[in-house]
Automatic annotation (TrEMBL):
PROSITE patterns: PROKAR_LIPOPROTEIN (PS51257). This is DUF3298 domain-containing protein. Residues 156-232 form the DUF3298 domain. It comes from Pseudomonas fluorescens. Signal peptide: none annotated. Pfam families: DUF3298.
């Protein structure tokens, strides 16, 4: 092959590579979001004890599938029992809640972006239901959304096959670190009454894997939603390598 032909082939290859890169999504750039917030009182009510619903959620214009995922998860958080039905939409939930709510009842639902990095969108979900008692019922959750795969990552998706037990052992180490940092390890009754438990709320944040607990599961209600943090170096051989920050 002549030198001219070799140069021509190389130039074409470089051009094709550049075009391919040009049309690939830039996963390091965060997705744009728009806020969708509203608060509505029970129709016809005009006193300080009017029931209300406050919904503060997000829209992703370039990833509309995520909008539906967030709405579905927020609706699941409105359940008052495991087998309770859920409304088909947030608008329908608001209407149903206000039609039957008593004085001082309120429901708050929120979705916010906690982080975006390495093609992952970490959405934190919050709920709070007040039915007029001494205190309301708060809830928390996470969505770990992969832009490359266009799906929500479950714990099984995150871990190397066969490493779930090792993951929860690392979580127990993080729990022990939390006990020491709060000095609760010095209270034998607390350690006995509030042992380590697993949680479904796992987030792949840039600074470490976060486990977030519902109130009254890892500690008394007054301590709120406890967060445990597992540093990434402890998850070598446990977490899939491509999910470590900077490796995607």
């Amino acid at each position: 092959m002549s030198l001219f032909k070799i140069a021509s082939v190389a130039a074409i290859a470089l051009t094709l590579g550049a075009c391919q890169s040009l049309f690939q999504p830039n996963y390091r750039a965060p997705l744009e979001t728009t806020r969708d917030a509203s608060e509505q009182l029970k129709p016809g009510c005009a006193n300080p004890e009017c029931p209300l619903v406050n919904i503060d959620t997000l829209r992703f214009p370039d990833e509309p599938a995520l909008d539906g995922i967030i709405e579905k998860r927020l609706l699941q958080m409105t359940r008052t029992s495991p087998d309770a039905p859920v409304a088909p939409t947030l608008a329908a939930y608001r209407e149903q809640f206000l039609s039957s709510a008593g004085p001082r009842y309120s429901s708050y639902l929120q979705a916010k972006v906690r982080e975006q990095h390495d093609g992952l969108v970490i959405v934190e979900l919050s709920s709070y239901l007040d039915t007029g008692g001494a205190h309301g019922t708060p809830g928390r959750g996470f969505i770990n959304y992969s832009r490359q795969q266009h799906k929500v990552l479950t714990l099984s998706d995150m871990l190397i096959p066969g490493q779930e037990e090792a993951f929860w052992k690392a979580a127990q180490v993080a729990h022990n670190s939390w006990l020491i940092s709060t000095k609760l390890d010095q209270e034998p009754e607390f350690v006995k009454s509030w042992p380590f438990v697993k949680t479904q709320n796992v987030a792949l944040t840039y600074g470490g894997v976060i486990l977030k607990y519902e109130v009254s599961t890892l500690a008394p209600y007054a301590l709120g939603h406890v967060e445990l943090k597992i540093p990434y170096p402890r998850l070598n051989g446990i977490l899939k390598p491509e999910l470590f920050p900077g490796r995607s």
